[in-house]
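Final report, closing paragraph on structural work. Over the funding period we assembled a curated collection of sequence-structure pairs, and we close with a single example.
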Amino acid sequence: MIGGRQPIRGRKLGDRRLRVERPHAAYFRWSGKGVMKAKESASVPTTGLGRALASVRWFFLGRPLASDEEIGERLSKKKALAIFSSDAISSSAYATEEILRVLILGGVAALALGLEVSIAIAVLLIAVAISYRQVCLAYPTGGGSYSVSKKNFGRNVSLIAASALLIDYVMTVAVSTTSAVEQITSAVPELLDQRVIIGVLAIGLITIGNLRGLREAGNIFAIPTYLFVGSALLMIAIGTFRIVVLGERGDFSAGIAEQAGRLPEQVGILLLLRAFAAGAVALTGTEAIATGVPAFQPPEAKNAATTLAAMAGLLGVLFIGITFLAVNLGITNLEFPEKQTVISQGARRIYGDSTIPFFLFQSFTALLLFLAANTSFNAFPRLLAILAGDAHMPRQFGLRGDRLAFSYGIVVLAAVAASLVVLFNGETHLLIPLYAVGVFIDFTISQAGMIRHWLRERPPGWQRRLAINAFGCTLTAIVAVVVTAAKAPASLIVIVLIPLLVLLMLFIRRQYDSQAEELSVREDIVFAGPHREQRAVVPVNGINRAVVQAVTFARTVAADVRAVYVTEDAAEAEAMRRRWERQLPGVPLVIVESPYRAIVEPLIAYLDVLDETWPPDREAPITIVVLPEYVAKRWWDRVLYNQTAKRLKAAIVGREHTVIADVPFRRGH
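Its predicted structure, as stored:
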């Protein structure tokens, strides 16, 4: 029995119940199984607007998932390839264009080197992929370069890696989206003026898909990824047959062959390095699998390593194949007709102009590029969650939403990426210079960390693994310098942003450390002293149901209860006193005159007087300020109520020996 009544064993909360199997136990678990419905939430909204917003959220995001359902949200290798590899694979749609855009500056003959540049980048891709396989196997908890560098180099270096990755994930969303819109406008030029709107709407839809959770995102994103891969491989196969067997060439291919002997005179090493740096965007997204290892089905590390190898193979074939077609089909004029992309011009040559296969291919390409941003929508929030767990980011980023997704990180990524799309007017080429700089810095730090890992751990076969990561580290360090120099001065923006992010994360960590120190309690202290005296002060504006409820509550928490009425009218105060003594006997009413019509300041002054008059030889009591608040029925009514209570809270918060107790009054109480 509790207070003369039987303990409640199941209190209904909407369609849910708080199941209490042992009412006197110290631990209870709330379970919604068996009674959960689509329109439920962990907190039941009480207002009409709250219920409406909750209904919209449940419609788009689906039913909440319990924490123990997380294993069911893990990804198979096929779905993981679609989710984590869509960024890297989709870069084949614009990486070739960036190479040719630079090489054309050296004349038509320079385009012959496009294939060689793409092969060099593919070799770099293989080296990076092999190196990152070691990361997946050695660090199965995820985090990628951040986890590697934190364990091997300490906090500061790991924050540099994390900052570089965060920037690159944001750029991935912006670049993939704008490139997808360019594929649409290449097929339907009439939509060119709406490219920014289309891009922002696409980011919004991707955000909703990710807020629904990993498994459903995999179902949504797997189809366009594999449709693009299949149609692109078919295009490359048909084009290669027509070029190699049938001898088909583009309008400019003859000029390329004729001038090939004079290439060294026309193409300088600087131009080749710039082309290499431009095409290096093809490697962005490679690290996402290593960052998201925990999202895989068991065995997580092995499945992630296998998926990484498959991704590298597909990307290498697509990238080299598309460049081979572009060079041999003489695709050189990137701005005509009507800003056609390189891959769309190749599709026109292979599938035919304005044919169903052409429009299907453009649709698959655009869908993949839209959904390529999903790589960042998985990796960016997960990295933020890891940083939040280490107190380098606000702890909210480590919280999972109703669908087990890191909702705060997803929303922040969407907002920043959409802002970039608007700021750069949906132009991919303007965003590219900011792209890939951070990821090669991250590659280098990661591989350097793995070198130190193998030297320290020395497991069986460590020499071979050390050689792999040492080669990868050297290669990516060189490329990081080349990419930064070739993309200057735009790349310097990233170089400046990285230390700024590091300083921000260090500041957040210092704040959390300071808070922890302030709140820490020594383990050898036992808090078993005498009960501390308490008194309750209830600010009132009259006698109403909310005030009566607050006074009733105050009587349950303190023996010394007094109400405080602030007024400027002495006659009104006297009338209030007489009514108070008649209706609420036993609770003294303190009248505080306020000739200047202030309310908050006189109440604070009265609390000061209470503290000053307390006997100095006794420990100061805890003053509980009990605030009666009326809960408005409609959202538009809220501005009419509780404004004084909000001001009182702001003035009292932090006051020594003082706590605030809100007592809300709802209709029907």
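DSSP finds 24 helices and seven strands in the chain. Residues 1-46, 66-72, 257-261 have pLDDT under 50 and may be disordered. We thank the funder for supporting this effort.
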